[in-house]
Amino acid sequence: MIPEAITCMRWGGFKKDIKGRNTKSYQFATCGNQQVCVQNLNPYTGIVRHKIINTGNLIRKYICVDFSKNAEDYLFVGTTTGDFLIFSLKNSHLSGKISVSALGVTSIRSVSRNILVVGCGNGDLQTFNVDGHKITPRK
Asked: What CATH number corresponds to the domain at position 105?
C-alpha cells in the first residue's frame, strides 16, 4: 500500500544490498499521511517495488524527507507536529525522534555526512551534527 497522498519524494541513489554495496536498482523515498515508503526502481525492467517503513506507534503526517549523505543508510523525515524522525534503512525501523518546533518541520536536508539542516514552520533554521543515528544540535 502506497500513501494515499504523497506529500514529498526524495531521490536516494542506488539501493544497497545487505553488505552496503550498490545494486543495479535505484531508490527513492515517499511520505504522506501516516506512512513512509522506500521505493526501488529497476531501470532495466521498469518495475517499482516499495517497502513501508515501520513507524512504530508514532502517528504523524509526514511532510518532508531526505536520505543521509554518502551511504544513504538513514532516512530523515519531518512532521507537522514539529519533530523529525530518523529511520534506519538497513532494518526499516525507527532509530530516533527529535522535537524541534511547535509549528512543524517543513523542510529537511542532509548537506553533508555530518550536517543536517531543518527548516521549521515558525521560520527557524536549525542545524544538527550527524553521527550515524546519533543527532545533536550544532552549537
From this structure: 2.130.10.10
